[in-house]
């Protein structure tokens, strides 16, 4: 089923150059948009500045989980196993989990806990970015889904631990 979903999305790549350029831009640039959002929060205090710390802690936790998973589990990227529409080159590292997607969902989920409107908007853009990673031929849909779950769950755990710590005082 994962490969069938991959094919359904990836076969659309290469049919419309404007859409391909858009998906490439989403995949490459959205990552930086979230970094800018975090910097903005740090500098202006738009949302509690502790949110940036929580996002960084959550990301470190997510990357640690990804590292452990990669030590025991290697999943070849789609372009290594199948004929795909590969729009831009990619590393030959494990397809799961997607570190790119981990970061996006960590930040989006962390912000969601503090500003539901901003978090929802960014979470939607994170989903679009995940689709773009499949579109480009870099990941399978379940890689994106699994990374979204790991990123969101680590943010949730960090948020709950932080809230529990302050509620005990």
Topology, please?
Elements: H1 2-10, H2 17-44, H3 50-72, H4 78-81, H5 99-112, H6 116-135, H7 141-167
Keyword list:
169 residues, mainly alpha, Vanadium-containing Chloroperoxidase, domain 1, 7 helices, 0% strand
Written description of the protein model:
- By secondary structure, the chain is mainly alpha-helical.
- It has one domain: Vanadium-containing Chloroperoxidase, domain 1, CATH 1.20.144.
- Helices cover 74% and strands 0% of the residues.
- Helix 2 packs across helix 5.
- It is globular, with a radius of gyration of 17 Å.
- The model has no long low-confidence stretch (mean pLDDT 92).
Q: Helical amount among residues, as a percent range? A: over 70%
* Biggest sheet descriptor: none
CATH topology: Vanadium-containing Chloroperoxidase, domain 1
Strand percentage lies at under 5%
Radius of gyration: 17 Å
Strand element count: 0
Under CATH at level 1, the class stands as Mainly Alpha
When the domains are counted, the total is 1
Shape, please?
A: globular
The computed structural class is mainly alpha
Protein name: Undecaprenyl-diphosphatase
Domain Phosphatidic acid phosphatase type 2/haloperoxidase: 53-159
GO cellular component, one term: plasma membrane
Keywords: Membrane, Transmembrane, Transmembrane helix
Short description:
With 169 residues, this protein is an all-alpha fold. It is built from seven helices and no strands.
């Amino acid at each position: 089923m994962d490969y069938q979903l991959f094919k359904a999305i990836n076969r659309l790549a290469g049919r419309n150059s404007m859409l391909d350029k858009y998906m490439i831009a989403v995949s490459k640039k959205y990552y930086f948009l979230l970094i800018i959002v975090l910097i903005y929060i740090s500098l202006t205090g738009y949302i509690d500045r502790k949110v940036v710390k929580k996002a960084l802690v959550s990301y470190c936790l997510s990357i640690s989980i990804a590292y452990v998973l990669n030590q025991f589990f290697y999943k070849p990227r789609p372009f290594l196993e199948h004929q795909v529409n590969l729009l831009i080159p990619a590393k030959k590292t494990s397809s799961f989990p997607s570190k790119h997607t981990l970061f996006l969902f960590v930040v989006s989920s962390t912000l969601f806990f503090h500003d539901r409107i901003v978090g929802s908007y960014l979470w939607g853009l994170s989903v679009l970015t995940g689709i773009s990673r499949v579109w480009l031929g870099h990941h399978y849909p379940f890689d994106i889904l699994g990374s979204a779950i790991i990123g969101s769950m680590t943010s949730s755990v960090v948020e709950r631990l932080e809230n529990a710590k302050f509620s005990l005082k």
